[in-house]
Amino acid sequence: MQTLEKTHPKLQELKTRLSEINDLESAASLLYWDQATYMPPGGAAARGRQLATLRQIAHTKFIDPTIGQLLEDLSSYESSLPEDSDEASLIRVTRRDYERAIKIPADFTARFSQHSTETYEVWAKARSANDFATIHPYLEKTLELSRELANFFPGYEHIADPLIEEADYGMKATSVRHLFAQLRQQLVPIVEAISAQSATDASCLHQHFPEAEQIAFSLKVIEKLGYDFQRGRQDKTLHPFMTKFSTGDVRITTRIRENDLNEGLFSTIHETGHALYEQGVNRDFEATPLAGGTSSGVHESQSRLWENMVGRSRHFWRFFYPQLQSQFPTQMRDVPLETFYRAINKVERSLIRTDADEVTYNLHVMIRFDLELQLLEGTLTVRDLPEAWNERYRSDLGIVPPNDSNGVLQDVHWYGGMIGGMFQGYTLGNLMSAQFFQAALQNHPQISTEIEQGNFDTLHNWLKANIYLHGRKYTAAEIVERATGKVLSIEPFILYIRRKFGELYSL
Questions:
Q1: Cα-atom radius of gyration of the chain, to the nearest Å?
Q2: I need a surface site. Which of 61, 105, 254, 487 has the fewest CB within 10 A?
Q3: First to last CA, the chain
Q4: pLDDT tens-digit profile of 250-287?
């Protein structure tokens, strides 16, 4: 692979400036990680100011006209290079980011950052206390700021388009709606057919599993998957996430419930999927805009691929189940593998997105995506959001949240970020995960057998070569087509769902 060599003095100057900006952004990410893991509550106000300061400085440095001039001066050099060369890709991606960034005032970045930090702290308390009224004015402000951000990009078809494109470049509200409508049409009859059957017994997952024992087992699992603990660590948090400070420091977090084995184990594997992506990026891209996942959808494809297509497969547990029984002999000794397998793949109408099964999960995402669009359009007010949320759960999933903590307050996204573009990546990722996994199996049919033997190298290496190494060199659409030879489609995902759950539920 070609490396980012010092072939042009202006490119080297650009890289020097970008590295400095990256350092500031990484410092801000470290402060956020600390806030979500170990920071005492008393530090919240100062942390909001600190994050706002760092993000404003980083943004100001990036939109400096000198960056724009360097990109202009490098245009002819870029044209002389192969389009997919590392150097041309760096210039192209930096220009795309720059042209977006210069439309957003630095003081707005600081205001939104400080507001998000304050809102996160209020949300954490409001969720615990089932108190939407307290967070209501903060969410009103978030909606106002989200609209303000979208309006820095006039000419959009839908007000959500600039916000969606920030996370999933090339996607718009219309294209997402089209995919979601196709998917919903296929999924709803499957959900109804399964829901008409007797509920799967998942009681084996709801015994007492001590936290320390759960963590010890999950760490053994993810090390086997390929997570490099020399370049990462795991800590606890309220809402699990992955964060990266450099290719040499990619951290994950998890959430443990001692009465639910599902929660900690699969959230750990999920975040490990994100981390494997970031740890696999070409290290020559360090401290440049190329050094990261190319979109929220592609990123989510990796967490869902490892969590579900690998981690919830029979092949996976034929290897790991004896180890799980050894870790929890009292709880699992007399539970057959097939009983456990059916329990971790139980399909049911549920309230919590992060706990949802593979069949119903995307319906949770579609609800949130639709509500985001309505809020931005002004057809739904924040005051009416809890009622609208509950009604959508009643109509779409046949279940109504008993309180806001299990309803509108459950996800951190609107309370630690913006409204718009926050959720579509989850379902796009599910679609991509099936398409990537199908392509990997077609190229290496032995992968399933290797997983059964506890060997994940072939799959991991295929993903590295076709997705991870490229970082942001290619857009999501380009990555999908390069890796699979096809454009993004719902078909591989629907085929996967029909095969796996058709067998489980005799559909």
A1: 23
A2: 487
A3: 47
A4: 999 999 999 999 999 999 999 999 999 999 999 999 99
Cβ neighbors of 76 (< 8 A, separation 6 or more) are none
Q: Is 387 helix (H, G, I), strand (E, B) or coil?
A: helix
**Beta-ladder partners of 242:** 252
Tokens of residue 3, six digits: 């490396």
Q: Buried (b) or exposed (e) across 331-343, using 16+ Cβ within 10 A?
A: bbeebeeeebbbb
pLDDT in tens, 98-124: 999 999 998 999 999 999 999 999 999
- Of the listed 78, 263, 271, 307, which one is catalytic? 271
CB 406 within 8 A of CB 131: no
Q: How far apart are CA 349 and CA 363, in angstroms?
A: 10
pLDDT of res. 1: 42
Backbone angles phi, psi at 245, to 5 degrees: -105, -25
**Dmax over Cα atoms in the chain, in whole Å?**
69
The answer to whether 124 and 416 are in contact (CB under 8 A) is no
| DSSP state at residue 305 | I
Q: Is 166 a catalytic residue?
A: no
